[in-house]
Specification:
The complex is a heterotrimer of chains A (about 500), B (about 160) and C (about 325). Chain B is an all-alpha fold and about 160 residues long. Chain B has seven helices and no strands. Chain B folds into two domains: about 60 residues; about 80 residues, no CATH class. Chain C folds into two domains: about 160 residues, 3-Layer(aba) Sandwich (D-Maltodextrin-Binding Protein, domain 2), CATH 3.40.190.150; about 100 residues, Periplasmic binding protein-like II (D-Maltodextrin-Binding Protein, domain 2). In chain C, about 45% of the residues lie in helices and about 20% in strands. In chain C, the strands form two sheets. A six-stranded mixed β-sheet of chain C has the order 2-1-3-10-4-11, sandwiched between helices. In chain C, strands 7-6-8-5-9 form a five-stranded mixed β-sheet. The chains are: A mainly alpha (about 500), B mainly alpha (about 160), C alpha/beta (about 325).
Chain lengths: ~500, ~160, ~325
């Protein structure tokens, strides 16, 4: 082991690797932070450049981009309310509210700190428990993943602020959108109206860009047209203070729990960042004892930034388990990293740890280095990044307009995607107006494919017996958790109604 | 007050209409006789359609119970639809010109049109510099740095 | 009016600037070539490599552009809608036949002009180590329990499905196909949720070496260079089995001959280059260069076979 560590250290402790990590982190943060650009896009475009590099350099570049992107997604989520990546969708509610209060730098600082902590701890967990976790991950068959994803979907109860049913409408809409296109399992076309272009279906990123960015642009433009030009916040008030040690102490426990959650969800192939972030968010909200504090969720509670950011970065460590030990990528980004590993002759699977242990350790080193670099970059840049709030909103909105149009084209090089993005944007604006929350739509989009394909694969494994969903302890456990979540929600609603009624009776008397 | 409480009726009817259209489409746009019962390409979309229908019924029931939305829903403002149509027009215009004239021509022109006419920007510095800088930086990132492709424009290619 | 004039003058200036390239287009290629890549995964990795290789030998930038969706249909449709100039080429595969016969696109392989075949990938049949010793044991079990053997495939009508159908037809047994949206075959095999799976050897290799999974048979006529320990179906006595996934370059029909020749020459040089050979070993595909003519014949022969097979499976639309 020591020899391998030393060999790995020699591979990674070079100037080229250092530059690759810096470049990758920077590119990841930038692509993650600009609405319309995504870090998956950065990874895909960078992959060809790594072909000619040394293995350690090329792989460090990809990993650093991945990690930079994962943390960078929170920047635009907090500053302008548009998540840079699906994993940052859960951060929007509280992060953006904080920014509106002028506490953007606190939120950004908190996000960076907990991202780094979450990422590094998950990496340690992964290194120590890789064998155990990969054996555990194998136990997750389609039935278990279906139940897990359904449990993730039940967090809608926590996301729907005003009305549970309106939240559900949004969630179901998201699920519906994901059924458009080709059905991979049976090779059947759905809702394509005979159009070849429609076979590509609705891309999650395209839909997310539309849902969040377009309403934002429309709002700013409309204000400008109606001459109600108002800057959202007092420009002079933009602070650049960072959260201190007290802050870390206060939330360390929450960060640890969310890291554990993120690592375990990341280890299960086919789920990934967004589910972890949403589950962490609802965990933070539910575990808050103080009812007053609980009420501030969605209105600028820093725990609403801390929890999802710790969890979605913890996914990076967890996701390395199926990627390295089973060769199974959990999401599009890790799929691209897998491509990079293969080209450099690093074949993931059980033999990787035996035959090519130095390569594995150099991957660990690269991740650690990437987190450190990302941390240093971000902490030092927060001062400058928050200045973006001083830009006239309509100039920023115009730039975002161009970025989202170009960005949604570049994802799949499809003009249809641009029009779908615009359509989704109009739809998002309409939902905003009738007070249907948008975040559950994203949750539905994220989970839609996983829910359906796992349900149907499980059903065909059991030849149509529904009992497969209750045949293992894991799936029964998740089923009970779902029931518990719903029961708690129903209890809360009933109590609320009773309270209103009491007040009403008193008023009448 | 009366206008506000009609919210749930309108929402319920809208959701119902949508769910019925969706279920209708499920049967016309998806082949059904594949796979075992309860496990066809139709089953999940159909189930989702039913959920939507149920939610619509719930909203109408809430209307009968006299529910009111907790936060007020603003009515349509003066000129709102017209202004949104104009904004969306710029989105579509940009997408359209991107397809036919390519990235390099359409981007600066569209940014100029938006800042000058839609946003009524008076400063000539911004009107000229902003489009050029924006186009140049995107071009630099995608073409020079990442060796990627941006739309070349169908008409430009035919020249 | 002033503004309109200004805009139009900018437009004219820019179009002249860009147009100057295409007016001088006597020599091919005079601007960058766009290579449409239809899938992610290995297809994309190899495609990106080939684009880099072509670039070196063609003297112009070749940009790999991914247009995924519909099992390749979206990308084929794009190429079909472009002018036949040679500046839009496609990194194609057997999917040109499966998309047409599956009713996803209304045009067949004849819409495209073959340029050169570059590589083949061979699917293999794998099981959990210790479950079946060899293919005969598997066949015997499946014969005894018709429809019981669970075989993992990527999806109905996908290439892994067609390959499985050919294998199990040759064995003369009926099996139960389980579709996975994405290739999770190794874990499902390890966990015992499925009994056998047909996938690319790269997914199984590491598990095979570790003694957790066993690759029973490859479907090519010759053994796979990267996995020489795996016998072929033909060696095992099933002479008719010969399915491989080829990948190559094509343009739209009607592309000028000399443009195709130029790309073909670049492809030929790259196919025998040491980089491509090294990459084939690492990623696990076989180099199989064919010139335009031979490639065209192969596509036509394959199309006939796939069409017949999909008809038998009831997948032809």
């Amino acid at each position: 082991m020591i020899e391998n560590l030393i060999a790995a250290f020699h591979m990674t402790a070079t100037l080229e690797v250092f530059f690759a990590v810096c470049l990758g982190s920077f590119a990841g943060i930038i692509f993650g932070a600009i609405p319309g650009l995504t870090y998956s896009m950065a990874l895909a475009l960078m992959l060809p450049f790594t072909f000619t590099m040394e293995p350690a350099t090329g792989i460090s570049l990809l990993l650093a981009t991945y990690i930079g992107g994962m943390t960078g997604g929170s920047i635009s989520a907090i500053l302008i309310g548009i998540p840079g990546t699906p994993s940052a969708a859960a951060t929007v509610a509280d992060g953006y509210a904080l920014a509106k209060k002028g506490e953007a730098s606190i939120a950004l600082g908190a996000a960076v700190i907990v991202s780094t902590i979450g990422g590094l701890i998950s990496l340690i967990i992964m290194i120590l428990l890789v064998d155990f976790i990969s054996k555990f991950a194998i136990k997750f068959g389609p039935a278990e993943i279906f139940m897990l994803v359904l449990f993730g979907f039940s967090t809608i109860c926590g996301l729907a602020e005003r009305s549970l049913f309106r939240g559900l409408v949004a969630g179901v809409l998201g699920l519906m959108l994901m059924t458009i296109g080709i059905d991979e399992l049976e090779g059947v076309q759905r809702f394509t109206f005979g159009n070849v272009q429609m076979l590509q279906g609705v891309n999650l990123l395209v839909a997310m860009i539309g849902l969040f960015a377009v309403p934002h642009i429309l709002e700013v433009f409309l204000q400008r047209i109606n001459k109600e030009d108002k800057v959202n916040f007092d420009v002079g008030e933009v602070k650049t203070t960072l959260p201190g040690f007290q802050f870390i102490k206060k939330y360390f426990n929450l960060v640890l729990r969310c890291t554990g959650l993120g690592t375990s969800i990341g280890a299960i192939p086919g789920s990934g960042g967004p589910i972890a972030a949403f589950l962490a968010y609802s965990h933070a909200k539910n575990s808050e004892k103080d009812p007053k504090e609980k009420d501030t969720f969605g209105k600028g509670n820093i725990a609403g930034v801390v929890a999802p950011e710790a969890a979605n970065n913890a996914v990076t460590g967890g996701a390395m388990v199926p990627l390295l030990s089973l060769g199974i990528p959990g999401d599009p980004a890790t799929a691209i990293i897998l491509g990079g590993l293969l080209i450099h002759g690093i074949v993931p699977g059980p033999m990787l740890f035996i035959e090519n242990a130095p390569a594995v350790y150099s991957i660990y080193f690269a991740i650690v280095a990437a987190y450190i670099v990302v941390f240093i970059f971000q902490v030092n840049f927060i001062k400058y990044i928050v200045k973006i709030l001083k830009v006239q909103p309509h100039h920023l909105a115009c730039a975002i307009l161009i970025m989202v149009v170009v960005g949604s084209y570049v994802i799949r090089n499809s003009f249809l995607d641009i029009y779908i993005m615009i359509l989704m944007g109009l739809f998002g604006y309409f939902l905003n107006r009738i007070k249907i929350p948008i975040t559950p739509v994203v949750l539905g989009l994220v989970l839609g494919e996983a829910i359906e394909s796992n349900y149907r694969t499980a059903m065909s494994l059991s030849s149509g017996e529904i009992s497969i969903f209750f045949s293992s302890i894991v799936s029964v456990l998740f089923f009970l958790l779902i029931i518990l979540t719903i029961a708690l929600q129903v209890k809360k609603r009933i109590l609320e109604i009773r309270k209103q009624k009491n007040q009403f009776d008193k008023g009448a008397a | 007050m009366i206008r506000k409480s009609k919210f749930y009726l309108a929402l319920g009817l809208g959701v119902l209409a949508f769910s019925i259209t969706w279920i209708f489409l499920v049967f016309f746009q998806i082949e059904g006789n594949i796979g075992s019962p309860g496990n066809t390409p139709r089953s999940i979309p159909f189930f989702l359609g039913c959920c939507m229908f149920l939610l619509g019924v719930i909203f109408i029931y809430q209307y009968y119970l006299g529910y009111r939305p907790k936060s007020s829903i603003e009515g349509i403002k003066k000129n709102e639809i017209k202004n949104i149509a104009i904004c969306i027009f710029f989105f579509v215009l940009y997408s359209f010109t991107l397809e036919w004239f390519g990235f390099l021509i359409s981007t600066p022109v569209i940014i100029f049109l938006i800042t000058r006419f839609l946003l009524q920007e008076k400063s000539w510095k911004i009107n000229i510099l902003f489009p050029i800088l924006m186009t140049a930086s995107i071009y630099f990132i995608f073409i020079t740095l990442l060796n990627s492709a941006l739309p070349r424009g169908t008409i430009i290619e035919l020249l | 009016m002033k503004i309109v004039k200004k805009i139009s003058s900018i437009l004219v200036a820019m179009s002249l600037l860009l147009g100057s390239n295409s007016f001088a287009a006597d020599k091919f290629p005079s601007k960058y070539v766009e290579m449409t890549v239809l899938f992610g995964g290995t297809a994309k990795s190899v495609g990106q490599l080939v684009a880099k290789g072509l670039e070196k030998n063609l003297g112009a930038t070749v940009v790999p552009v991914s247009r995924p969706g519909g099992g390749g249909a979206v990308g084929y449709k794009y190429i079909q809608s472009r002018p036949a100039s040679g500046y839009d080429i496609v990194w194609n595969s057997n999917s040109v036949s499966t998309t047409f016969h599956g009713g996803k696109v209304p045009f067949n392989f004849k819409t495209f002009a073959p340029i050169a075949a570059m590589s083949i990938e061979v699917p293999v049949l794998a099981v959990k180590a210790g479950s079946f010793k060899d293919i005969n044991e598997l066949a015997a079990y499946a014969k005894k329990n018709p429809g019981k053997l669970k075989v993992g495939i990527s999806g109905k009508g996908a290439f892994t499905h067609l390959t499985s159908a050919i294998i199990f037809d040759a064995l003369g047994v009926k099996v139960n196909y389980i579709s996975y949206g994405k290739g999770k075959a190794p874990t499902e095999l390890l966990a015992g949720r499925i009994d056998a799976a047909v996938q690319w050897p790269g997914q199984f290799r590491s598990f095979d070496k570790a003694g957790q999974l066993k690759m029973l048979a490859a479907t090519s006529p010759k053994r796979i260079a990267s996995d020489p320990g795996v016998p072929t179906m033909q060696e095992l006595g099933y002479k008719k089995v010969d399915v491989t996934m080829w990948r190559g370059l094509a343009a739209k029909k009607g592309t000028p001959k000399d443009h195709i020749k130029a790309i073909e020459a670049a492809a030929k040089t790259y196919a025998s280059s040491p980089e491509f050979i090294a990459a084939s070993k690492k990623i696990g595909f076989e180099i199989n260069y064919l010139d335009s003519k031979a490639f065209g014949k192969k596509i036509a022969a394959d199309d006939k076979k796939i069409g017949q097979l999909m008809k038998n499976l009831g997948l032809k639309k």
